[in-house]
Amino acid sequence: MPDFDVIVMGAGHNALVTAAYAAKAGLRVGVFERRHIVGGAVSTEELVPGYQFDYGGSAHILIRMTPVVRELELNRHGLHYLEVDPMFHASDGETPWFIHRDPERTARELENLFPGQGEAYSHFLDEWTPFARSVADLFNSAPGPLDMGKMMVSSGKGRDWQAQLSRILRPYGDVAAEYFTEERVRAPLVWMAAQSGPPPTDPLSAPFLLWHPLYHEGGVARPKGGSGGLTKALRRAIEAEGGQVFVNAPVKRILVKGGRAQGIELENGDIYTANAVVSGTHILTTAAALPDEHVPAAARQVRVGNGFGMVLRLALSEKVKYRNHVEPDSRVGLGLLIKNQQQLMKGYGEYLAGEPTTDPPLIAMSFSAVDDSLAPPNGEALWLWAQYYPYELSSGSWATRTAEARENILNAFEHYAPGTRDTIVGELVQTPQWLETNLGLHRGNVMHLEMSFDQMFSFRPWMQASQYRWPGVKGLYLTGASTHPGGGIMGASGRNAARVVVKDLTQRKWQRLGLK
Predict the structure, then answer these.
(1) How many CB atoms lie within 10 A of CB 417?
(2) What pLDDT, on a 0 to 100 scale, did the predictor assign at position 154?
(3) Where is 115: in which H helix or E strand?
(4) By CB distance 3.0 to 4.6 Å, which of 13, 68, 305, 352 could disulfide with 450?
(5) Alpha-carbon separation of residue 121 from 35, 125, 152, 182, 230 (angstroms)
(6) What is the pLDDT of residues 298-350, one digit of tens each?
(7) SS (H, E, C) 410-444
(8) Which residues on neighbouring strands pair with residue 220, listed in sequence order?
(9) Pairing of strands 271-279, 4-9
């Protein structure tokens, strides 16, 4: 008898979601994680005394468009979400404005600041909310070759679907310019869309902007105590159903015999057997753990890209004080800090040349404004995400150029909040090299693979592997950001993969498990 019904390789949030559903279905589950804590890029630790630092994603948005939290009863396992409202603080350093959960309030305040732009915002939401909802539906199911058509049919009722399709196929920067004439409004929206990776000029990238209405649908939240609150709750959910979670347990290889996955071997030589193996690690890590004869060429040809972003995580002795401050709203939501769209394009140009961005736009997150457990009284945990940063540099190395890139991020933030550098009492600098070495994110890409249209939906990671099964090896399954729907804190990949695994191993349909 095998040691487990299901072995899960890696303990990122999608892997844990798959494991939790499998355990809930009555399967014997074992999770094996190389790091000392679960969560992967969705984990939190006290790296500076009194300050909790997230290692990766911090804003929980897309997961609220899934039933994962409800179906797995994660609130029962210690997950407590704090609402973030306003959701976003947009600013060029001179004129701040806010995106609230309430779209009418957002439009009203925008109209007062920038006449005509509030009306444009309402028009944008009205036109694209059906599309955004259809995208969310597609995220919550295995991808198919007709996904684009499904989006159009479900979102185009009563509308000019040909005009809709034309916009979807265009760069998101062009679509933003159709709606918003004011640079101070347009640039932050474009900057938020750029979080998926492609620049505003990439064809077929419009959906990264057009799912903006989802933010108003599901809102933005933070787990109490840090982003890792989600993955800690997932671990408890697995263990409550009899599953086992092993940390400091790096997998060396996936055992394959007779064309079927049989288990895993750890780096220390221990072997565990199972009826199925689910890999939640990067697709290239999965490939490296398999015998060469079971790795198709397509698995080695996925496009990882050349880095992406860089994070500066700061422990501050004082609260952040913006130059043009609206207390406390400026510190609550994600700060979309960008001077203009040219700043983003200049940074992308430097990135293409193999150089770290010298004056980056920023996403500023000071969630200690809504969660006093992240920092001491009067202190602040501030995280600054910046783009774009190449993994491979045209000159030097990250060992020699980290200090320079750190200074440029701090200098960029000083434009918005002068004097911040004087309050720093601790920090974590996460370069693309750091992200690869410490979190297993190949070439520093937090999305695993580039989020371009040719690697989305049924093309992710490649067509033959898009249904969460590794082609040619029975009993080997995939989940995580390398699979549909890609990166970000959503859990949809984990849930989608679980549906496949549970059905294959139990022959029971999802509905019989009380899940929808």
Answers:
(1) 23
(2) 58
(3) none
(4) 305
(5) 44, 6, 21, 11, 32
(6) 999 999 999 999 999 999 999 999 999 898 999 999 999 999 999 999 999 99
(7) HHHHHCCCCCHHHHEEEEEEECHHHHHHHHCCHHH
(8) 84
(9) parallel
